[in-house]
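Human: Respectfully, please carefully check these tokens:
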Amino acid sequence: MNKRPDPERTDTENPEWTSERVERAVPFSSLPGSLQAKLRSPGRPKAEVVKERITIRLSPDVLASFRATGSGWQTRMDAALRDWLREHPHASA
């Protein structure tokens, strides 16, 4: 029994693949480099210094204070720790 497609659930911008479309498909790697560059998601640029993800336990009041400063609080916390290391050079040895 053939089911009729539901017009409300049909995606006209992304139609179902037919066997003919599958036959014509080519791998991304076989596309010209210029087209691959255009199709690639630009994403985020690679950072010069890659930060390391860790788990750390902090006092609730310290964490709340940094979070209260808004977006970017983790970067500001990193800067505060960096300042502390500059002021206490023997602590980093």
In short: The mean pLDDT is 88. The helical segments are 19-24, 33-39, 60-67, 73-87. Residues 61 and 67 are 10 Å apart (CA to CA). The two ends are 75 Å apart (CA to CA).
